[in-house]
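Severity: low
Component: inverse-folding endpoint
Summary: output formatting inconsistent between runs
Steps to reproduce: submit the following structure tokens with default settings.
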């Protein structure tokens, strides 16, 4: 296969590029290190790109996906058989201070890729990495129960988490969530209206040992970094009992591979660690303390982030029914162990 990966220096993009390069495929990566512009030196992915360039079948394009003409030229020249669109402005909080950059990257950049694909390689399988933030704060209006360490859904209907029937309308998203809604709906439309093999994956917390977590993005990676390096950490709202599910980047790529082998135009799937890989911030802090002797210096703020989820974990029943051979292979404790090993080494 001839695979084009946007955001090839990021967590999911780099994992995808390495996976298919090791399988002998040719990979064209698009990444202009916007992450460094968004988050400073801690977001720099140039080292990851240097690693990819060691593969003989990797070609790198330092191009901004907002540049319509350059994106069109790349797709018309390379004619990829698979497009993995992982590039984004990924921060819930950062978007408010860079609204044009956020919308142009997430919405317009996605549209540029979709239209270039339709013009030049409409038979390609197009995987769009969306986000659970398209649901905005709608999950917060579900009935909750509060325990000593977490919030959880009270209704039996949501015992397995949030599925794809949750509304993405008439709720508060943050500007990031809104720009990703625009991209999500456009991707669906190219699949449904033009009958293109476009699949939309609404990711929960995606992580792994190479995740460059920063204060405004990458919760699990950043909290481990703070615990290992002695950096003070602020928990915003909900008494630290807000819940997220974690999915390892390798499990994300295996889900993509399932879709690529048997795509459905315009399909939408939630993608996350599910309830078994869920934890609240307080529970993560306890894992770090009890299992790794890492004590986090944290404080609690009463102010929650706008549009933030109180509890979110993914119901992947729909995807598992379509692709019964897929399953999560990395547990929450496997994920934490990998990140701890990486962050502790960097602190030595």
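Observed output (run 2 of 3):
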């Amino acid at each position: 296969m001839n695979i084009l990966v946007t955001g090839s220096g990021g967590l999911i993009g780099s994992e995808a590029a390495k996976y298919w390069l090791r399988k002998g495929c040719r990979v064209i990566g698009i990444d202009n290190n916007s992450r460094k512009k968004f988050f400073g030196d801690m977001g720099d992915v140039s080292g990851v790109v240097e690693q990819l360039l060691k593969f003989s079948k990797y070609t790198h394009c330092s191009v901004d996906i907002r540049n319509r003409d350059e994106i069109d030229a790349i797709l018309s020249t390379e004619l990829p058989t698979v497009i993995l669109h992982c590039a984004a402005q990924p921060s819930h909080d950062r978007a408010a201070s860079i609204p044009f950059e956020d919308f142009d990257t997430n919405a317009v950049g996605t549209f540029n890729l979709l239209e270039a694909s339709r013009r030049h390689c409409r038979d390609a399988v197009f995987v769009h990495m969306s986000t659970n933030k398209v649901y905005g704060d709608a999950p917060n209006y579900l009935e909750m129960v509060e325990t000593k360490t977490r919030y959880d859904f009270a209704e039996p209907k949501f015992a397995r988490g949030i599925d794809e029937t949750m509304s993405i309308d008439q709720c508060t998203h943050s500007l990031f969530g809104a720009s990703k809604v625009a991209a999500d709906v456009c991707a669906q439309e190219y699949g449904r209206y033009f009958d293109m093999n476009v699949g939309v994956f609404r990711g929960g917390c995606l992580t792994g040992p190479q995740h460059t977590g920063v204060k405004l993005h990458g919760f699990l990676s950043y909290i481990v970094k703070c615990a290992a390096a002695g950096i003070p950490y602020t928990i915003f709202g909900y008494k630290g009992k807000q819940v997220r599910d974690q999915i390892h980047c390798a499990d994300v790529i295996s889900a993509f591979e399932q879709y690529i082998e048997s795509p459905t135009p315009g399909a939408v799937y939630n993608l996350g660690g599910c309830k078994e890989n869920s934890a609240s911030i307080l529970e993560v802090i306890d894992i770090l303390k009890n299992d790794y002797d890492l004590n986090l210096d944290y404080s609690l703020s009463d102010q929650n982030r706008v549009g933030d989820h109180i509890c979110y974990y993914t119901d992947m029943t729909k995807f598992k029914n379509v692709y019964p051979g897929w399953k999560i292979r990395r547990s929450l404790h496997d994920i934490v162990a990998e990140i701890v090993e990486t962050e502790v080494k960097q602190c030595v």
